[in-house]
Design a protein that fits this description.
Length: about 425
């Protein structure tokens, strides 16, 4: 009959290689007569057996009712689960999951989400939470469908976050399916987790520079791949006097950072559930294209001003720091203690309007010839100084009676000559 086949299960690890598939004498085996199931049809697996189950009142048990859907009156319910839903267009695209044990391609289309290792999931239902979807995996090998809840969060152009629930054999309400936690050991958070996993948009040319969240140049000390390091981390551009979409790490005390390491910032996220914590997703620009998550965690000691630590995770997956102690492969590769009190924002004078006094033309040296810089009103000034001791001015007399002010923070860049005309 169409859809029927036979499976031989052997008690030995030695399988026969005869053409008819039959084992030689002396090898024990089970012979199972199987029938392929059509999930689009509501029918009983064994009509005679299902009649007995109905008489005995066993339809109330899920393990029996799932094999007797017609007899146990589940056909109408099954039809409702086949009602189509569609994944939000903002989720559509090709993505990449970077994790410890694999790099997995993910494609999300209108009707389905396809994970190259995790499987295919067809959208079946949406709930009150617009970011959650009940999806079903349908198999052609005789296995029953599995129902899984996915929750997505599209952070920006570069990043899509998701988490997956346990896959259940029996259909449940979304409130029951959509609970998120790790699998038992040894899988743990390989496929499912309580926290969101990060998917990176496929194709480097499609990635946009994003806010890094450092807003300055900050000294740090700590470890980088086991080496003790003192250095700086910066997303500050002295030429434009603004932040940029790349992060620069450099140090004179540890070999991996002797040459500055440039990182493209892909996403900066304020953590919703963890107070005083942010995450930063980066891509290395050294040709290796290494993708990582950085966890920026703040600590308050004795009610004092919080101090921050940056942890570089092995991949883009931001495993909670307490959980990394359970898996040596997920422990941070770097740990930087940030010296926020000594952070700085230096700007080149030609691009720094805050060094200009209203109504006064400024001549900046050294230049070939003289260069006039446009004046700004007081309202235009918005300079954030982190150490006012570095910005003291000492007036000196000049031959023409004007005053020359030396800005110590710009001694290497030139001397600013200010002349009040008519005084």
């Amino acid at each position: 009959m169409k859809g029927e086949f036979t499976v031989l299960i052997y008690f030995s690890v030695i399988c026969p290689d005869e053409q008819d598939g039959k084992p030689p004498s002396g090898i024990q085996y089970y012979e199972l007569r199987m029938k392929q199931k059509d999930e689009e049809r509501c029918e009983d697996d064994d009509e005679d057996r299902c009649k007995i189950i109905e008489v005995q009142g066993l339809c109330a048990k899920e393990q029996d009712a799932s094999h007797c859907r017609r007899t146990c009156g589940l056909c109408q319910h099954t039809t409702s689960t086949r009602q189509r839903c569609y994944f939000d267009p903002k989720l559509h695209g090709k993505w990449v999951l970077y994790d410890i044990d694999r790099i997995e391609d993910v494609t999300i289309e209108r009707k389905r989400a396809v994970f190259s290792a995790f499987g295919q999931y067809y959208c079946r239902e949406t709930g009150t939470n617009e970011n959650q979807y009940k999806a079903v995996s349908i198999f052609t090998n005789g296995c029953a469908p599995r129902y899984t809840c996915f929750e997505f969060s599209r952070t920006n152009n570069n990043l899509l976050q998701y988490r997956a629930s346990r896959s259940l054999r029996h259909d449940k309400e979304m409130e029951e399916i959509c609970t998120f936690h790790e699998d038992p050991y040894p899988l743990l958070d390989t496929y499912r987790s309580s926290y969101f996993k990060n998917l990176i948009l496929s194709g480097i040319k499609f990635l946009w520079p994003s806010y890094c969240g450092i807003d300055s140049t900050i000294p740090f000390n700590g470890t980088y791949y086991g080496e003790m390091c003192d250095g700086t981390i910066s997303d500050w551009d002295e030429d434009t006097c603004t932040t940029k979409g790349t992060l620069t790490l450099q140090s004179r005390t540890c070999s991996p950072l002797t040459a500055p390491l440039e990182l493209q910032c892909l996403a900066y996220i304020m953590h919703d559930t963890e107070e005083l914590q942010q995450i930063l997703i980066t891509r290395s620009m050294d040709g290796k294209n290494e993708f990582n998550c950085w966890i920026i965690k703040s600590y308050i000691d004795g009610g004092k001003w919080p101090w921050r630590v940056m942890f570089k995770m092995p991949t883009t997956q931001c495993t909670p720091i307490p959980d990394t102690h359970m898996d040596v492969h997920r422990q941070p590769r770097a740990e930087f203690y940030l010296g926020d009190k000594d952070k700085s924002k230096l700007c080149k004078p030609a691009q720094n309007p805050d060094s200009v006094i209203p109504g006064v033309k400024v001549t900046i040296k050294p230049y070939v010839g003289e260069k006039e810089v446009s004046t700004f009103t007081k309202e235009d000034q918005d300079l954030e100084l982190t150490n006012t001791d570095d910005f003291k001015h000492e007036p000196r007399s000049s031959k023409n009676g004007c005053h020359t002010s030396v800005d110590r923070s710009y001694q290497l860049l030139g001397i600013i000559s200010l002349c009040w005309m008519g005084l």
